[in-house]
Amino acid sequence: MNSANQKHIALISVHGDPAIEIGKEEAGGQNVYVRYVGEALAKLGWQVDMFTRKASADQETIVQHSPNCRTIRLTAGPEEFVPRDNIFGYAPEFVEQLLNFQQESGIKYSLVHTNYWISSWVGMQLKKIQGSKQVHTYHSLGAVKYKSVSTIPLIAKTRLAVEKEVLETAETIVATSPQEKEHMRSLVSTKGNIDIIPCGTDIHKFGSIQREQARAELGINPETKVVFYVGRFDQRKGIETLVRAVGQSKLRGNADLKLIIGGGSRPGHSDGRERDRIESIVDELGMRDFTIFPGRLGDDTLPVYYAAADVCVVPSHYEPFGLVAIEAMASGTPVVASDVGGLQFTVVPEQTGLLAPPKDNAAFAAAIDKILSDPIYAKQLGQAARKRVETKFSWDGVASQLSELYTDLLTQSLEIPVDKTAAVSA
Ligand code: UDP
Q1: pTM over the 0.85 mark
Q2: Domains along the chain?
Q3: 32 CA closest ligand 1 atom index
Q4: Can you point out the beta strands (E) in 18-160?
Q5: Alpha-carbon distance 90 to 108, whole Å?
Q6: Residues 27-48: what's their mean pLDDT?
């Protein structure tokens, strides 16, 4: 290993651009994870380069986030938005471009941390070609995801094979919750090394504003009962369950109720169809007069919405981790979430929020009502939630754990044998 490169780290996120606006089209938790992990690692002394695919000719090729942390956009396939299920064919070009970048910059990445299965394939090629060590975070597991969707995409077989190979060959897989690790073991492979390091959140940004002030800023009365969702518009997110649950809430008609559904793009984007579908359910149930769609919520307003809410609902059908839950918790807002995946790890039932079976409208309605109708209970849950995030899920804590892992891997004397004949083809 070249000691000059010792502190260089490449975070690879082919389809999740860490420098892009979050909340629209396919930009969500993975983008946030890569961006915040990158910035926190840079503060710990790493030289962080985050590689992603250029998805528009207007995008800058290099975005400098801080002196030691930048996003580098490589041209692989057309410079336009490509849905993630169609990106894998451009992965070989991505590898070539990354190798070119290394040659031009004189940096060789001895360690790469890959994100999502498409990037895992890129990392496996770098391992074969130049012996890079690989840490991988799945963000979503095909083996779990395909159980919860009605149409299985054509890419499924390839994805499942790649996900198995990376589990068995990466130096370390980072599971973000014990539940995710269990899924890997039971559904993917019993081989390979898995460490559990959770996702994190910004405990200074979330929790920095009081409920009263937040409500004043948003023009919401102190007595209004506010139910809040934020996230991508994707059927897997279960927004329909939330709408139908609020539709049958006991408080409907008896209290000043507001349902705020944040996130999503303007019509014409790939997530517009789900937004239209959700809006039509809102209309069908006669809920238009108390439902608000504020669209994508940026960094400046998101903490205000969380703080103003009485309850934040995360009704996903499947959720490997679920950043929204810990952001709400960091804001002191109790969470009602689906009893699935990482949400079972972050939300402690009856202590920091409540869990309900996914797609169960009645159970969600009951849980939401329980919190809305008992402000003292809600406050207790919110305070415990904040405490849990402070101790377990701050980005700085998460980045320290990752930094320790990278350092251990880089100082391990065992060199990986290089396969000089490895060809770059998907
Ligand atoms: N998000 C945002 N603005 C929006 C919608 C979403 O900043 O309008 C962020 C949200 O705060 C969270 C991320 O997008 O950090 C979503 O991550 P999560 O893990 O909850 O879901 P994913 O998108 O990975 O399925």
Answers
A1: yes
A2: 3-200+395-411 (3.40.50.2000), 211-392 (3.40.50.2000)
A3: 15
A4: 47-53, 62-66, 69-74, 111-115, 133-137
A5: 22
A6: 93
